[in-house]
């Protein structure tokens, strides 16, 4: 369920060293030098970014904060006989912290755009001061005009008696893969650093499930401290706000992400005006359409998202959406990997009715839903669905039934006594997993001993014969995976696609 080989981080801590290898000409080359010829860059490739950088750099700023972060109280004598003599701290301790980032001036009167995470204390404390350093080294105190954690954007204001150089947003909808981009920022505190690259992908979905999980991807170097800085197109317009990188090491490997201008610009304008940012919310837990999940459902991989659970009494439940549905369209817009359900619903004004097209089994249908105001990101994180990553063995291959060998699961019918032992007295029928083969796909998906299989391919299972029938049906339909609905101990039921062998 988790992928430890990939780390998605908004702030990064390492840099890559670059070595230059200088070759010597061969004797033959020295004796017969080639005739000089002009070097002509290919169409669209600049000979230099110097003029563009000279024009844009004065509008890019460095941002630093001083924070007072709360730390949990701790006594080294807690739980020992010395605790009553030395006591424990009576309240939480605090420590001073700092953060560094980048930003850019959006108007001559001193409005500045940056990332929200640059000017927050990770939700653990309070930012006491924000300082903006201009391109010429001048420092000014800044005030926070508004912030939006969901989009990771914030607007600051500095006050000067002179007009400031500024830049403007461009049209990120016209950006194409392969276009040149320029990033200017404050990586590792090295202010005024310029890096260049190309747009590697547009509308990249990183799978975080956030409302605005939709980024421009670039190979221009982005590192710790670049957060909040601008990504310029070749005309000097801001088409993105540098936000994060994707890396197995925590350092830059040429995969950086920027918030597209088309998303950022309207939010920034509302923050400048002091308006609240309101987004729609359906009340569903969703899962992207993976290859195994799509195969188990018999649907295309690149369309729709799977509903794992539905919030009781929420907008989706009231509209008749159920766990196990595949949502295909919202308000006439198709759900795709680059246009996630969260993004589409967040773009809907709360209280406005929208059509939701979905697939339930082999049947397509359309329901009408009325999204409500989206809760805070912290509240949504606490509601998130997750299965424990647990390891189980003792799987006897020699004694396993044909269906158990196919899935790598040994199962037995659920009885009232077993249900009580598992704390699932509310479950009347199903199959209890008694062991899991360690190298099976089921084990990799997090299934474990004591989990209860409620259904297979959306049909209830009460015996091994029911499970075998579901496997035969999947094979007959040409599917390489079967969809199990599983209830773990103390968890809500969840759908898990398991590959057939």
The oligomerization state is single chain
CATH hierarchy class name of the largest domain:
Mainly Beta
What is the total number of structural domains? 4
Number of helices: 12
The second-level CATH architecture of the largest domain is Roll
Number of strands: 28
The fourth-level CATH homologous superfamily of the largest domain is PDZ domain
Question: What does the model show?
Answer:
By secondary structure, the chain is an alpha+beta fold. The protein folds into 4 domains: 91 residues, Trypsin-like serine proteases (Thrombin, subunit H, Beta Barrel), CATH 2.40.10.10; 101 residues, Thrombin, subunit H (Beta Barrel), CATH 2.40.10.10; 104 residues, Pdz3 Domain; 98 residues, PDZ domain (Pdz3 Domain). It contains 12 helices and 28 strands. The strands form 5 sheets. Strands 6-5-2-3-4-8-7 form a 7-stranded antiparallel sheet, with helices on one face. It is elongated. It is found in: Periplasm. This is Probable periplasmic serine endoprotease DegP-like. It is an enzyme of class 3 (hydrolase).
In brief:
The chain is an alpha+beta fold and 501 residues long. It folds into four domains: 54-75 and 89-157, Thrombin, subunit H (Beta Barrel), CATH 2.40.10.10; 172-272, Thrombin, subunit H, CATH 2.40.10; 280-383, Roll (Pdz3 Domain), CATH 2.30.42; 402-499, PDZ domain (Pdz3 Domain). The protein has twelve helices and 28 strands.
State the main characteristics.
4 domains; protease; oxidoreductase; Pdz3 Domain; Thrombin, subunit H; 501 residues; EC 3.4.21.107; six-stranded antiparallel beta barrel; seven-stranded antiparallel β-sheet; alpha+beta; periplasm; elongated; disordered N terminus; Peptidase_S1_PA
